[in-house]
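[User] Once you have settled down, look closely at the record that follows, and write a paragraph about the fold.
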Amino acid sequence: MKNFENVRLWCVLVIAVLAPTAMAQTLDTGDTAWLMTSTALVLFMTIPGLSLFYAGLVRQNNVLSVFMQCFSITCLVTILWILLGYSLAFGEGNPFVGDFSNFLLKDVQEGSISGTIPESNFATFQLTFAIITPALIVGGFAERMRFSAVLIFTTLWVLIVYAPLCHWVWGGGWLSADGWLGSFTGGLMDFAGGTVVHISAGTAALVAALYLGPRRGFPTTAMIPHNLPFTVVGAGMLWVGWFGFNGGSALAANGDAAMAITVTHISAATAAFTWMVMEWIRFGKPSVLGAVTGMVAGLGSITPASGYVGPAGALVIGLVAGLICFIATNYLKRTLKIDDSLDVFPVHGIGGILGTLLTAIFASSALGWFGGQQDINILNQLLAQLIGVLATVIWVGAVTWVILKVTDLMVKVRVPEDDEIEGLDLSTHNERGYNINY
């Protein structure tokens, strides 16, 4: 009996010593450090990256309005994400939307773990995606939407459109590998947001552009960007920040993250160079605006594929993105005469669609060194990708139109003509973004 008590005492001591070690191993400091870095990089993409990129493209009497919209969206979406957004996106819920179990992030404590990282880190990383998506939509209605309408639209759009879509794809919803689509196709492959971010933002921007109508003077009056150096600097910030956007989506400091960064860079560079060459052939001179626009097209296109494809696939995706998005941009503005002010749909929307579909091809290990490492049936996966694209376009397009209608009933979406002529900087914010005596 005494020996038994001794054995039991030793067991208790061993457990007491080893238990903290086992718990500590659950949290990986390398993964945590990388995701915290990625979170900062993705936030950096919106403020100041996207803000500068967009502000340089509008006319000089609207530059502050773009900065204000991006900055305010960052603040507003943060509050919404804490209140309901995170819970609706990642709560257990049902195949279509999460529940309210994480209202005010009540279950996200200092010791809460999600995989090998703190859940607080995961929630904040996902918040930066929720911020940049509606900020991208700003490019579709730039220079003509009321500021109050921007805030109302963003609130409704994030909670009703973005959060459920995020749940469908990343929260275990019906498009995921664990959902309905996964039961017969393997589920949608969207590593970092081809559908959730780029197709959704591009579609919403197109709907907003059609709903509001063109800017006064479009297309007969040239809408010349007021400060292309702003745009180039912002583009550089987006390029660097995208390493966190795609690499961080691995949620670990591992080979997937490293390859995601590699293919992200390849696609961005290839698409930028392709767009530049296309301009050179068609217009006789390459432009810096074309080069940076091509870069964004390449980044948006590689996003859904970044954790699945290899370098060769990224090269092809970048080439296709630079070519097709260039054609789409010119067709939308010159032929269809749709005033998507800053080309959100032809760059992000079309780029996201291309990347999502091409993922099914270049992720497959059946292509050998030219493909990725995924053991998938290309045709079966292509069907899953197509269903994901169509579901995203239909859901986002229809609900965005309804949200704009509701917002219009509340505050009138478009600014008065006199305010548009004067510019939103002065008419909305009583400030100027430039020295009037310069």
Q: What stands out?
A: Residues 91 and 371 are 34 Å apart (CA to CA). Residues 11-25 have pLDDT under 50 and may be disordered.
